[in-house]
Specification:
- Helices cover about 65% and strands about 0% of the residues.
- It is an all-alpha fold.
- It has one domain.
Length: about 375
């Protein structure tokens, strides 16, 4: 696949990144949990709120796609970033050093968030940043291989995961698709990093690397000299194959996000590719760009707003405005007032990103 010399920003990727981060920080505001209040049970609002809660085990809800979105988006951006750095005069060795440093920082941030959440020094790998430090590095290291090689390696990671889970020999941990009785939980128990309540496992970083590799391949496709409609066709076909294959595998290998089963990785990869394909068609082909800036602004400071929301920034804002918002919206009932309060908090988080954008402040590593 021949790459074109141009490495202009991909507007649909900016939108997709911004939308993903917007939904993620919306969850931090308790907006979606407010929709699941008993007062709304049986309504459309409750159903929407349910889609923004992780599936307890087997199955797939919309919120389960946010992390694959994020892993994939990072992958799409890698070829663009690489081309821009080459254009600025950096060589491959210098770029590789930057990638290693960035991976290390992502891991440190991931660990720091785990320490803050747990109230003690821990080295968990379950959160997005810690796992991204692995997927980002692995996807970059094979980026210059052929597309066929990258695809084979991505599915090899899924096959290895499948084999390990199905054949792990330790007694009591050889039930591959049972919560807390699988290889992933056993591995985390060895270093004291098990998440027995949520069932998340650190080993997820290995199978979900496929999402980032597929993102790299998508970025390379979109940078190629193929026609826009040809690129769109490839994305749609790949996405549909992912959906059909992933759902077809469910009876054999259950779709479980919490341990990133191969069926989950494939089906979520299909939804992710199709989401970018639709964004690419609407924004980069049909040129419907004006409205996308609202979301793109959030994506331009994605690391900052994620960390800010995660370490308590959302709580500080909510506690500051809640007395006033409940006074204003209280006549509507507690449940409705909570939703409106969360929307105000979300707007203020967005406004922080807008303030940074207007001053051309972009916090990156």
């Amino acid at each position: 696949m021949k790459n074109s010399p141009a490495s202009d920003r991909l507007s649909s990727l900016d939108f997709f990144r911004g939308l993903t981060m917007f939904l993620l920080i919306a969850a931090f505001t308790n907006l979606f949990s407010s929709l699941r209040a008993p007062a709304f049970e049986g309504t459309l609002l409750y159903s929407i709120g349910l889609q923004f809660q992780h599936q307890p085990w087997n199955g797939l809800r919309f919120y389960d796609l946010i992390q694959p979105f994020f892993m994939f988006i990072v992958g799409v951006a890698i070829p663009y970033s690489y081309a821009n750095r080459i254009k600025r005069g950096l060589n491959h060795g210098q770029i590789t050093r930057h990638v290693l440093e960035r991976s290390f920082l992502l891991l440190l941030f991931g660990w720091a968030l785990a320490c803050i959440g747990d109230g003690k020094i821990v080295f968990y790998f379950q959160n997005v940043l810690a796992q991204l430090s692995v997927t980002y590095l692995l996807a970059f290291l094979i980026m210059n291989r052929s597309a066929t090689t990258q695809i084979i390696l991505s599915f090899l990671l899924l096959a290895i995961t499948e084999l390990i889970y199905r054949n792990f020999p330790v007694e009591g941990f050889n039930h591959p698709f049972v919560a807390n009785e699988n290889f992933g939980t056993w591995l985390d128990l060895q270093y004291g990093g098990a998440n027995l309540q949520g069932h998340w496992v650190s080993f997820n970083a290995i199978p979900t690397t496929a999402h980032t590799i597929w993102g790299v391949l998508t970025g390379q496709l979109l940078m190629s000299d193929r026609s826009p409609m040809r690129k769109l066709k490839v994305l749609v076909i790949a996405g549909l194959i992912g959906l059909v294959a992933g759902y077809a595998l469910d009876p054999v290998t259950p779709i479980i996000k919490r341990i990133c089963t191969s069926s989950f990785v494939i089906v979520s990869g299909g939804w992710t590719i199709l989401t970018l394909a639709f964004s690419y068609w609407l924004i980069d082909i049909k040129k419907q760009k004006k409205w996308t800036l609202f979301f793109a602004i959030v994506g331009m400071n994605s690391l900052f707003i994620y960390l800010f929301a995660h370490v308590g920034g959302t709580g500080i804002i909510r506690h500051s405005i809640q007395p006033f918002s409940m006074l204003i919206f209280g006549f509507m009932g507690e449940s409705a007032a909570n939703i409106l309060t969360s929307m105000v908090v979300l707007f203020l988080l967005w406004y922080i990103c807008y303030w940074l954008y207007k001053r051309k402040i972009f916090i990156k590593i």
